[in-house]
Structure formats: structure tokens, C-alpha cells
Amino acid sequence: MILPIVAYGDPVLKRKATDITEDYPKLDALVDNMFETMYNAYGVGLAAPQIGLPIRMFLVDTTPFADDEELTEEEQKSLEGFKRVFINPKITKEEGEEWAFNEGCLSIPDVREDVFRKPVITIEYLDENFKAHTETFDGLVARVIQHEYDHIEGVLFTDKLSSLKKRLIKGRLSNISKGKIKVDYRMRFPDQKKKR
């Protein structure tokens, strides 16, 4: 089932999410619905707060990035078929020199800005079967994970921009929260309280 994606301005996007337990109701259906919602919106990651749930869970499928011809063959291979569910994750280490990449977000449509992040992360998480993992990721995979991880910490990519950049996009962000934007996927706007 395709769920509406919560738009910029909704308080759930600024809340630090809480851990869940193995008996979380209908978790399998939630994971399926989140993947379906993400694919419908042509996203590569989706966090639970983006569908209105303040829980520490996000999912990632970087396969669409693998088609980018500007990437090396090795980078394309690392992105192809990388599909994971992260439950109660904790980034334990971020390493390397920060690099900029143009990021966007399904909750903030039509706004893209360069965001600086470290290139290598180590993360502890549970998968959809509540099996524990500790893994290290780099490059674009690490970046997508960091972006989604920020969501469960109540942080948006726009929070990482300079005050000048924030001022420049303030009007566009305001329009998004009011629903004054055209999107080709279902969204829930805080100032309208209606679904599109």
C-alpha cells in the first residue's frame, strides 16, 4: 500500500524517533508498504518519520543510483542491488574528509542542495528479522544511510545548510509546508491536513 509522505513542516520530522521491539505490530506489512511508497516516489531511501511514524527505522535501495554514468564501475557495482532495512540503528563512527554531494528529500520536493558528510561510516543495526549487524559503508551508500539516519534523529538535510542558503530557500520551504507544490506522489501537508 502506498502511504502519503509527510511534507516539510510537520513536527514528526523534527522529533527524535524511538526504538522498537520485535513485537512491533505488523512490521512486515510496514516494511513492504514503505518500500512500495519509496519506489512510487522514485526515492532511494525512506525513514519511518517520513510516513508519520516516530520510530527508529529506515530503508534504503540505492539501485537507481547505479545507472549514473558519471560513477566509476566500482561505484556502480556497490550501489547495484544494495537494499536494506535498518531498525534501531546507531552510527558508531564517521571517518574521512567531508565531501559535498547534491541531496534532495522526498519530504522536501524540488529542493536540492550540496550537503557535506564524511565518506565512511560504521553502523550497528537490526534487520527486518531483528538480526544484529555491524557494518562499515562508504561513498554514496554511506551518504544515503546518513541522510536517512538523520531523519530518525529529527534532522533534515536543510538543517545542515549555511544560514545564507537557508534564507534563499525559505520561501520554497514555506510553500511546501502549505502544499503549494506539484508532486507526482502522495503527500501529507501540515498546513492543510489533507492528503493528495
From TrEMBL:
This protein's name? Peptide deformylase
Q: Is the Protein biosynthesis keyword given for this protein? A: yes
EC assignment: 3.5.1.88
Q: Which residues cross the membrane?
A: none
Among HAMAP family, the record links this protein to: Pep_deformylase (MF_00163)
Supply the Gene3D superfamilies for this chain: Peptide deformylase (3.90.45.10)
Question: What family does the database annotate?
Answer: Belongs to the polypeptide deformylase family.
Cofactor binding, per record: Binds 1 Fe(2+) ion.
The species is Algibacter lectus
The gene designation is def
